[in-house]
Specification:
mainly alpha, 61% helix, 0% strand
C-alpha cells in the first residue's frame, strides 16, 4: 500500500490511477479545498451524532457528494 498523501499536496498525483495530469493548485485553491473538506466533515460528523436512519444516511451521502463536486470544481 502506498503512503497517504495530503489532498492539498502537489504530490497528490502519485496515487491516482485515472487522472494522468494535474495542474499545481494555488495556495488559495488549496486553502479553499481544505475548508470545503473541513466543513463537510463537520457536517457529516454532526449528522452521525444525532442518530441513525435512512434519511441521515442519505443526507451523509449528499454531503460527501457536495464536497466531491466542490473539490472537483477547484481541481479541474
Amino acid at each position: 500500500m502506498t503512503d497517504k498523501i495530503d489532498s492539498t499536496s502537489d504530490e497528490r498525483t502519485t496515487n491516482n490511477v485515472m487522472r494522468h495530469q494535474y495542474r499545481v493548485l494555488t495556495d488559495a485553491e488549496k486553502a479553499n479545498m481544505q475548508a470545503i473538506k473541513d466543513y463537510g466533515l463537520g457536517f457529516h460528523d454532526l449528522l452521525t451524532e444525532i442518530g441513525d436512519s435512512r434519511e441521515l444516511a442519505l443526507a451523509k451521502t449528499k454531503v460527501e457528494e457536495a464536497v466531491m463536486w466542490a473539490v472537483k470544481h477547484i481541481t479541474r
